[in-house]
Amino acid sequence: MNSLRRAALGAALAGVLPPWAQSAPLPVPTPASAPAPASRPGGRVWRIAASNHGQDFARALAEAGDGDTLELGPGVHRGAVGVVRQPRLTLRAATGDDACVLDADGRDAEGKAILVAKGRELHLEGLVLRGCRVPDGNGAGVRHESGLLSAHGCRFEDNENGILTGNAPGLVLRLEGCHFGRPAASAARLKHLLYVGRIDRLELRDCSFGPGDGGHLLKCRARASEIAGCVLADVWAGQPAGRAAYELEFAEGGQHRVEGNLIVQSAGSLNPTLLAFGAEAWRLPAGSPPARLELVDNTFVNLGDAGAGFVRVWASHLPAGSGWTAANNRFAGPGRLVLPSATNAGGNRRIALSELRGFEPLGWRLPPGVPAQ
Question: 3-state class of 96 per DSSP?
Answer without folding.
Answer: coil
